[in-house]
Amino acid sequence: MFSRPNLYGNLTKICGNMRTTALVNPSSVTAAAASSPTPCSHASVRQYHEVVGDIVCPSQVRGIDHIRDPRLNKGLAFTLEERQILGIHGLQPARFKTMEEQLELCKIAVNRYMEPLNKYLYLADLADRNEHLYFRFLYDNIEDLMPIVYTPTVGLACQRFGLIYRRPRGLFITVNDRGHVFDILRNWPEPDVRAICVTDGERILGLGDLGANGMGIPVGKLALYTALAGIKPHQCLPVLIDVGTNSYDLLEDPLYVGLRQKRVVGKEYDDFIDEFMEAVVKRYGQNTLIQFEDFGNQNAFRFLDKFRNTYCTFNDDIQGTAAVAVAGLYASKRITNRNFADSTFVFAGAGEAAIGIASLCVKAMVDEGVDEKTALSKIWMVDIDGLLTTTRKKGTISTHQTKFAKDVEPLDKLEDIVTKYKPNVLIGASAAAGIFTPKILQTMAANNERPIVFALSNPTSKAECTAEQAYHNTDGRVVFSSGSPFPPVTINNKTFTPGQGNNAYIFPGVALGVIATGTHHIPEDMFLISAKELANFVEQSDLDRGSLYPPLKSIHEVSMRIASAITSYAYKEGLASTYPEPECKREWLKEQLYNFNYESSMPVTWAWPRMPYFKTRELQPQKLYGKTLH
Known about the structure:
It contains 28 helices and 16 strands. Helix 13 packs across helix 24. GO terms for molecular function: malate dehydrogenase (decarboxylating) (NADP+) activity; metal ion binding; NAD binding. Belongs to the malic enzymes family. The active site is at 150 (proton donor), 221 (proton acceptor).
């Protein structure tokens, strides 16, 4: 017979109580049981999430779990039958609400806050309580809530991270964990992770080195994976690689949550990143999508070059930004009637975003039939030390910048460069607020009937110019786009509503296509395809109101079109590993999407046919080990 400790151990396993201690140390279970009213009293030790994946095993979930677990909780939307059968009747007030009524209450609640950061905190709290309601609320109100869950508010959330941190939303892997990265990945309760967004916090938006406070970025990105492309949230894992910070302000901040040390660099840093990549593949498989986000410029390029052909990875700051900017340029062709190859480009900024955009512009020109050397000659790049040239005496030129350096006399000032080379397109990715001065904008207008100006730096405080400055200094003739949202501008009795070149138009759809097809590697062609799909979705009415992008309310359809195009390309080029190849790519993708609506909390039941009657024989005594049993 079982001893009492073992009996309690088995009972607690059945009830879901003290899952770990029951398996590891029966004596500790005895002690815990002795201090508890019943063997199944376990509120203090249950996991935050009671289920993993999106398939609930009814025998493993108790009634109270449906209230405690945000994946199962429906608030007051539980029906009377669900409340009674699940054993939660009486734990909630008598009111029964529909999801639509809850959504209306959410809208009232979030709108009562005036500060964006308070709205951000309300949404975070909603996600902690009711996952389906949170994502449905984002899905239905993406135009209003995108600036809250992502730029620009997420930047402020990162800056205040130590103050607003509540509970884990991803994994923090520190350099002190070298040799044990795989062990940390095993601590994440979800076994079916398909997408990881990882940052080391060195270059968060235009805010610089925020260290461990940068966790808000991967959390926000992956929330958009679900809200915009329908990727299931349990398949997404935010990761913060904490190797320290070089910000003395953070090192001296009593609220800072990361390692208080200067950044680890060099071989030690590279080996740590290598270990992380290998551990991801070991834990989740070779096809796991790894999105690099907000790494420092040099590291971002190095890792993209190093891993792009050996892992399923991309860098959104380089490739996602490039795709959305090039999509805007494709759309602008309908206004200017000018091809890429017929334009001259000046880039203010020569970091990862600018290099990424410039490189994809070159690819677009080659796609138009121009050779690469000619395409490169159309692009002029400016960094903090002036024009990238082979002759300048100050500043260094990285490997990725070299192909854009010109054999001309150096110039230091952006105004002089714009005046001399007369660009048709001026793109800012410098995080230098106000660098597009009225004089520069006026020069662009003097040299072009419809000058193209993209002020892509974010958050808003880092933009090269505002929409109002761009329109007023070009007599309303500018073709304008920005990286952060700006309000409408009225000039010459016409109101312009500039579009935001938000990466969210691109990366969710790319991720959905890559994950669904099990693509091993992500070639650059996928981002040019994404840019074309986005540009093709822009309607004439969008261009008439001053936007090179479709309204954010249509971003779900944009993501689906991009995912469908990526899926077709993956199968055509032999990159997919999910077989058989679906005939209708769009319908196949839809079958894999997250359900934003509530599902029944009741176990599925079904009827059996009535069993046929058989007359049984008389029961006879049986012998067992020499004894007669009656």
